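Every protein is a chain of amino acids, and every chain bends into a shape of its own. Below is the pair of lines this work produces for a single protein:
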Amino acid sequence: KNHTLGLNFKLSILFVALVLFSCSKDEICLDNGYECCDFPALTGPTTGYLYGYGKYQFKAPCFNPENENEFCYIFENTEQGLQQLCRYNLQTGEHFVILENSSIILQPKWNSNDWIFFTSVDQLIWKVKHNGDSLIQLNVNGLSQYLEISPFSATLTFSHKVSSQTLPILYFTDLDGNVLDSLNYFHYGNSSWGVSAWSGSNQLAFAYGAGESYGLYTFDLDSKSLSELHIWGYASSDDAVRDLKWNYGSFELFYTKYTTGVFKMNAFDKNEVKIKEGCDSRSYEVISISSGGKLLAERVDSYIDPDFENQIIQNSKIYLMNIDGSNEYEISLPTN
């Protein structure tokens, strides 16, 4: 009898262990927001996962270049269809709504004169003071995106198309949108560079190319010369660079690659290092680097909807970490 009880106890322990092991992956893919997992492939006739969004989304942070404790970001209430451009102070906890009912795409950019520049959903470029005053549309006609500000905050650069049927041109303008210079893009078929980063030595780094030639490049604005930094090819959306930033005062580039993670690369030795792991349930989108070496990131935490197994719910949140990816934590931001 004792032998039977002992055997039953061992079998029970084995059963529990098997259940935990077999369920752990699915449980991790549910709404815990911390563990990293890849979603299982759907079976049967399907077109793939559907995507939904939580009620509150916090997106596209950008540091104030004059105060590393302050940043702007986009807040969205998806149930109300509301978007706001906000700013937040990490030290004081002060929260301020710069623009109500905004319609911003991509990351807003904050310059040292307290102007915040952004691209609207109709691909026009605007600027507004950090206190919400003086909302002004820049003097540029056409379609513009991938906005960047020079390290000295006196020049803007962005991809510009006269119409949706024309090839993009790289524009350089003053802070009012008056064109100072322009460059024709390099092209691989229909592909041209998108996200870019401006160094302190008058170089633009950008992700560019297609297929096996996809990678990171630099373009010297003085000599107009193109240099290859790193080629990894483009096989799927996991290879796409979502954002790219140059750590001013160093030779290091930081970039995100969708669900693959956050990376850095030294422009001299061209060595790629992953500093944050990504996966289906945790992807990194937009990043910003402070003058003191802190890194802000829009992290998208995703999980399988427990009521609809073919639907994934995504929540964008803002995280702060050291420049090496350590000590990452979520910034708790207000929702009203």
